[in-house]
Amino acid sequence: MTYCLGILLPQGLVLASDSRSNAGVDQVVRVSKLNLMPPARDRVIAIQSSGNLATTQAVVTKLHEAFGSGDPAHDLGLARTMFEVAGIVGAQLRSNIVADARFVDPYGDPSGNFLVSGQIAGEPPRLFQIYAAGNFVEASSRSPFLQIGETKYGKPILDRSLTPQHPLAEAAKLALISFDATLRSNLSVGLPIDLVAYRADSFTADLVTIEEDDPYWNALRQAYSEGLAALVAGLPAPPAAWGA
Questions:
Q1: Strands across the sheet with 34-36, in order?
Q2: Running DSSP on this structure, what letter comes out for residue 117?
Q3: Distance between CA atoms of 24 and 218, rounded to whole angstroms?
Q4: Which CATH architecture has domain 3-233?
Q5: How confident is the model at residue 31 (pLDDT cuts 50, 70, 90)?
Q6: pLDDT at 187 (0 to 100)
Q7: Residue 119 host element (H or E)
Q8: Distance from C-alpha of 123 to C-alpha of 117, rounded to nearest angstrom
Q9: Nearest Cα to 22, choosing from 14, 11, 33?
Q10: What are the residue ranges spanned by the domains of the chain?
Q11: What b/e readout covers 160-173, taking b as 16+ CB neighbours within 10 angstroms?
Q12: Which of 44, 98, 120, 190 has the fewest CB atoms found within 10 Å of its own CB?
């Protein structure tokens, strides 16, 4: 299992993914689930993945190999819009599942899911969720974040606090708090966290890896836990008639 989060804002994108992959309690490995396509002057494209690791790695690797090939069916460097990018990723996912599913099915689920995001010159940043069937939905100002993998623990803080008007730094803070909640409640999600904060129209993206000893990560977790405990302590007590 894994947890991947994408946040779409007028200022840009915040993307975060954990790095834990496990095929049993004694088969835990660290694998990056956030991949940036090769840099280009007119586009930034990021792909986050969850699900069958062999399937998702094969999809991402084939897209990397096709980048710059000139093949319009597979080259993300030729896509005119992020909608086309999402379509190419979805088609590649379908192709891999068709080729491999009958061999993988006896051993487990062969499917994968993706978050595909970025910006191509001439349009604003965009964010898509691609399902195992290869079809997809797009984030909007009414639904500014998308999640795949182990989503339920990190969703409440985003539902309560995230707005489309958030600056990138505040959104990144909420993203990390969302991951803290998930790590505390699910052992199948684990550090390190890969994080990208992409500013619209910059056409450059840097991936930051947050390890267990990161000072900001630890300070944020501690402050959030203490603040939450203080908030709960200050809430009104139940009425005496309830017997509490």
A1: 34-36, 43-51, 112-120, 126-130, 136-138
A2: E
A3: 28
A4: 4-Layer Sandwich (3.60)
A5: confident
A6: 83
A7: strand 112-120
A8: 12
A9: 33
A10: 3-233
A11: eebebebebebbbb
A12: 98
